[in-house]
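The data layer described in this paper is built around a simple, fixed record for each protein. We quote a single record here, exactly as it is kept in our systems:
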Amino acid sequence: MARNANKVKMAKGDLAFTIITYIICILIFVIIAYPLYFVVIASFSNPDAIQRGEMWFWPVEPSFSAYAEVFQRSEVWRGYLNTIIYTVGATAFALLFTLPAAYVVGRKDFPLRRPLMVFFLIAMYFNGGIVPTYIQIMNLNMLDTFWAMVLPTSVSVYHLIIARTFFSSTIPDSLREAADLDGCSNVRFFFTIVLPLSKAIVAVIGLYTAVASWNSYMNALIYLQSDSMKPLQIVLRAILINNQRDAGSSVEVVRKAEMLKYALIVVSTVPIMCVYPFIQKYFAKGVMIGSVKG
C-alpha cells in the first residue's frame, strides 16, 4: 500500500511539474510572439487608433494603404532585388570557401591542419577594424560593387569549426581509404562522396549565411554609395529617417510616418518569417553539431 501511495504522489508531482512547465513555456511564447503579432496588425490599422491605445488583438479600421505606399516606391523593389542577389551570392561563396577549408583542416593526415586552424582562430578573435578594412576594399577597387557585399563575409570561422566537426565525426577514414584504393583523387572524393553525405551541414551553413546576409546592413552602409546598389535594409532605413525628419511638419505627415513604420518592418522581415518554420530543424541541428566536439 505504501508503494502504491508513493506512486500516486510521484504521479501527482510529475503532473504538477508538467503543468507548470507548460504554463512557463506558454508565457515565454506570448512574450516573444505578441510584439511580432502587434507589428503585423499595426501595419493594417489606423495610426490614430494605435496612438490612442485602442488596438490590442485585432486591426482597427483595417486598410492596405501603408503597403500600397511602400510598394509604390521603386527603390523598395530595387532594394529587394539587390538583397536577393547579395544573399544568393554570399551564400554561394560561403559554401564554396568554407566547406573545402573545413574538410582540409578536419583531415587527420593533413600535416598543416593545426597551424591552419590556429591561423583561422587568430583571424576570428582579432580583425583589422573598420578603417583598415575599408582601405583594403578601396585599394582592391571593390567599393560600390557586388564584391564588397560578398567577399568580406565569405568565410566564417564559426561555420568552419561546425563543418570541420561534422566532417571529422561523420565521414569515416575507411571510406577515404577505400576511395584511395580505387584511385579516387582528393578533389573527386570531396565532391562526389563527401558533399552528398553532408547535406545537413551544407543546409546549416547555407541557412545561417542567408539569414545573416538578408539582415545585414552595416557593410552596405560602409561600402555602397550609389542608390542603385543599396539593399532593402538600407532603403527602408532611409525611408524611416526621411519620415522622422519630416514628422514635425504636419499631423498628416506624422500619421503617414507612423503608418509606414510598421509596414516597413513587416516588408523587411516577412520572407525570413515565412521560411524559418521550415528550416528551424536545421538550425537546431547546426547547434548540436557544433556542441559535440570543439
The two ends are 51 Å apart (CA to CA). The chain has a mean pLDDT of 79. The chain has 14 helices and no strands. The first helix runs from residue 2 to 42.
